[in-house]
Write a structure and sequence with these properties.
By secondary structure, the protein is mainly alpha-helical. The protein has 38 helices and ten strands. Helix 18 (about 460-470) runs antiparallel to helix 19.
């Protein structure tokens, strides 16, 4: 316990020393008083360290900033020449911060300017070195036009890290706008570009945590660059220590820090949203929302956590800083300023849950303001919406002022129209509230003293919900919506029969209520199409998906999130049919729709997930891997680390590693996915079964056959129990058990497994499908092992014909089929025929797989044998040596 306390104390002293040492000597005393408070021992310790530091004369003892000055100055020692930054040459000091010094440098060979950032005193603080390296790793992931790019990274001879990044010759955001007298719209558009950069970083699960105008530079061409990810944090990788806060080591700028950041609580997307709100406040009001000058850390914390900011409109009007807005307010009333107040103060809410839920939501409201539309963040009212309408159509309304009768008619017309829209919205809100109350009542049956029992199972609640929904005949819209919701839940629970009954009933009710053409009907058709895919009824799934997508395009706006969901369903159907190129085109559209302003991050993640899966089946492993990693970060940000969607992402990544021959990495990912699905669904759910199947596959490739057999048998039993004997998931489980039997030499067992898998796939997909081809190739392999060469050859040729028809030319499955046919011909001593197929397969597999992949090893062995038989020992030796 004493050691922990000493370590904490030392970390505190070390951090405060470095911060004080960075300051001019005249400012150090004030800093120490604020930082140390009543801790006299801490004050004395720091004063002694600073005094000792001031006496040191060597370059190393002066700190990295002084070392860098010697390097840049004419009297630089020979040991610190500019060549240490080759190919960059230091030109001038740009600035100094708490952990580094920044120089402008020139690349000697290209003549281009870069910013060189050097970590000061790296040898004194491993923590500083790690934060600096973290900044390098973070910047390396970021590729956005509004984020300064990382060019290079290295270390000096003494181990001091440095990196070269884009040099941004610009002014801080606020200074740029005020010097030029930018209009409010210009400021908002510039601010919006910054928000887009932050949103991009959030999409990679990176939060900045120190957003402020000095980290947002605007170039002469009017484009902004976001700088300094030095304290950025990965949302998906931050363990408990990442959120610890030590006195004097809160890496942030207090004036822009959120209350939770000041208190040392967990940070997240909402932290950056708050800082953006402060930046916008300063852009509009001309000053910060809180005056923290000459405040102690405790006082600053209380102000930020408890004090409400004055409306930026009041500050700006009082200071007459924004004449453009003042004039506009005189003409159009207070609503323009009110909207700007809402934008700022919603982002700056004390409680994270009351802020904009994401930067994307903030961007949407900026767009609404710029278009003169109602904001999402303010209460809805007829007066508010009418005011927006009048401002968007000012010329038309002004021209009609002279015609009082016409004006009165217009007012009545639009009032009625708005009232109708309001009533519709209210009805939807009431229905949503009614559904919410209905779901809550499932837990207590109306008895407020009866909380849900610990053993209460989700399926019990859903069953209870169906019984209650049947009694809602007097509320048909609520009833139909509940049928669809409960049906989808049954689908996720693996009870496809009950899901089918409820979704079909919901479609019937929606058509009776709304007619044959309505958004609710379209959504229901899409939901049924997704269910049909799970049921392996692909003809019905395609019909429903096409009908739902066509209706969605007719009744929805082009950027409606429901349209993205319809495109996703269509893409999933095409993917399961093996029409991968068509599926990719459809899913690209879904991603585009879901990426539009106002779109849902959950829908965007769903579209990217399906696109990643389709790219995998099409053999494009690098694209699939990149997409899967992107969606994994999104899902972790949206749902946390233990959600089953995370498991799906991990299984996809594992499948790629398996096909590339990285079996141990695949096993690790499969086990993580299995743990998530078991915790979420239990042991008997089909998703748990799928996780078991993938894990068993990895174990087979690793040669751990006994362990694999138990796991694969469990998977088959789960899938047969849920889906029945004829389903694609059953075929997948049978295939893996067949491969295990083949590896062990149990050829009769392998033949039975593969033959049944082929029959299932033919029933589900037909003969000309990649999945049918996989099982057929495995069955042919059994005949090859049994030396039934003619039968094996015939089946392999069928497989190659199907693969050439349905897969791209360089697909791994085609390469394996070519190798297998070549091996069959080799056994039949048809060496010249065998050579062409062996080489065709080898060329494909050698491009895609690692040296450890089993098929590459088989190809080497077969080609060596082939050339021995052909009397070409040089070629045989070439392959035998690999």
């Amino acid at each position: 316990m004493t050691g922990d306390l000493d370590s904490t104390r030392w970390n505190q002293i070390q951090a405060l020393f470095h911060e004080a040492a960075d300051l001019p000597s005249g400012q150090q005393n004030a800093f120490l008083k604020n930082a140390c408070g009543d801790d006299r021992a801490l004050m004395a310790e720091l004063r002694a360290m600073l005094e000792e530091d001031s006496r040191h004369t060597s370059v190393l003892d002066r700190g990295m900033a002084e070392a860098a000055r010697h390097m840049a100055g004419p009297a630089a020692p020979t040991s610190f020449r500019f060549q240490e930054f080759h190919p960059y040459r230091i030109q001038e000091l740009v600035g100094e911060g708490g952990m580094g010094v920044v120089y402008r440098a020139e690349r000697e060979d290209l003549g281009s300017s870069v910013a060189i950032k050097i970590l000061r005193d790296a040898w004194l603080s491993p923590a500083r070195r790690e934060r600096f390296l973290s900044e390098q790793r973070t910047l390396a992931q970021l590729n956005h036009p509004a984020i300064a790019r990382l060019y290079d990274a290295n270390t000096l001879a003494d181990g001091t890290p440095w990196f070269a990044m884009e040099y941004v010759d610009g002014e801080p955001l606020t200074e740029y706008c005020w010097k030029r007298g930018s209009s409010v719209r210009e400021r908002l558009r510039l601010f919006r570009s910054v928000c887009e950069a932050v949103q991009y970083a959030h999409g990679l699960a990176i939060i900045h945590r120190d957003l402020k105008p000095s980290n947002i530079l605007v170039k002469a061409d009017g484009t902004a660059r976001l700088l300094d990810f030095g304290i950025a944090k990965h949302l998906d990788g931050a363990g408990p220590q990442a959120d610890e806060t030590r006195t004097g080591l809160r890496l942030m700028t207090p004036a822009y820090a959120a209350p939770e950041q000041i208190r040392g609580e967990r940070t997240g997307v909402h932290t950056d949203v708050y800082a953006l709100g402060v930046v916008l406040y300063e852009l509009l009001a001309g000053r910060l929302p809180f005056d923290l000058s000459e405040r102690t850390p405790g006082e600053a914390e209380r102000i930020i956590a408890e004090q409400q900011a004055e409306k930026p409109s009041a500050v700006a009007r009082r200071a007459a800083l924004v004449p453009e807005l003042a004039a506009r307010a005189a003409v159009a009333g207070r609503t323009s300023w009110m909207d700007l107040d809402v934008l700022c103060l919603t982002a700056m809410q004390k409680e994270p849950a009351r802020r904009y839920r994401s930067v994307e939501a903030l961007i949407r409201d900026i767009d609404h303001y710029l278009k003169g539309e109602p904001l999402e963040a303010r209460p809805d009212s007829v007066r508010y919406r009418m005011g927006k309408f009048v401002r968007r159509h000012r010329r038309s309304v002004s021209a009609a002022v002279a015609m009082c009768a016409l004006v009165a008619g217009l007012v009545v017309f639009f009032t009625v129209r708005l009232a109708t829209a309001r009533n519709r919205a209210l009805a939807q809100a009431v229905r949503a509230q009614r559904i919410q109350q209905f779901m809550l009542d499932l837990f207590d049956r109306g008895d407020p003293t009866a909380g849900p029992a610990e053993g209460l199972r989700a399926v019990t609640l859903v069953d209870r919900g169906v019984q209650e929904a049947h009694a809602l005949d007097r509320e048909p819209e609520v009833q139909a919506a509940l049928y669809q919701t409960l049906g989808t839940i049954y689908q996720k629970l693996g009870n496809l029969r009950r899901a089918d009954a409820l979704l079909s009933l919901a479609l019937e009710r929606h058509r009776a209520i709304f007619g044959p053409e309505h958004p609710e009907v379209a959504a229901n058709l899409v939901a049924l199409a997704q269910l049909r895919v799970d049921q392996a009824r692909l003809d019905d799934a395609e019909k429903l998906a096409r009908e739902g997508l066509a209706m969605s395009r007719r009744v929805l706006a082009p950027d409606d999130p429901a349209l993205a969901r319809a495109e996703i369903a269509m893409g999933r159907v095409l993917e399961n049919r093996g029409e991968y190129k068509k599926a990719i085109a459809v899913l690209d559209r879904a991603v585009s729709i879901a990426s539009a302003p106002g779109g849902s991050q959950a829908d965007l993640a769903a579209a990217i997930f399906e696109l990643a899966s389709t790219e995998f089946y099409d053999g494009n492993y690098p694209a699939s891997d990149a997409l899967n990693r992107r969606v994994l970060a999104m899902h972790r940000q949206l749902y946390g680390a233990g959600h089953p969607l995370i498991a799906g992402d991990l299984l996809n990544l594992a499948a790629i590693q398996t096909n590339l021959g990285h079996y141990e990495e695949a096993e690790k990912l499969d086990r993580q996915a299995l743990a998530i699905n078991r915790a979420w669904y239990g042991n008997d759910h089909p998703e748990t079964g799928a996780s078991l199947n993938y894990l068993g596959q990895a174990l087979v490739f690793e040669g751990r056959y006994d362990e694999a057999k138990t796991i694969l048998q469990q998977s088959l039993e789960i899938q047969e129990r849920v889906f029945g004997p004829v389903h694609q998931r059953v075929a997948v489980a049978l295939n893996e058990l067949g491969l295990l039997a083949l590896k062990r030499g149990n050829l009769d067992d392998a033949e039975a497994r593969f033959r049944r898998a082929v029959n299932v796939d033919r029933a589900v997909y037909g003969d000309k499908h990649p999945e049918t081809a996989i099982e057929t190739a495995n069955l042919a392999t059994v005949y090859l092992q049994k030396k039934q060469y003619a039968l094996a050859e015939r089946l392999f040729r069928q497989v190659i014909a199907t693969d050439r028809l349905t897969l791209p030319p360089g697909h791994l499955n085609l390469g394996i089929a070519e190798l297998k046919l070549g091996r069959t011909l080799l056994r039949e001593r048809r060496y010249r025929e065998a050579e062409s197929h062996e080489l065709a397969g080898y060329q494909i597999i050698s491009r895609l797989g690692s040296p450890s992949i089993s098929w590459l090893q088989i190809a080497h062995k077969d080609l060596a044998t082939l050339y021995d038989e052909l009397g070409q020992p040089e070629k045989a030796a070439l392959y035998r040596g690999k």
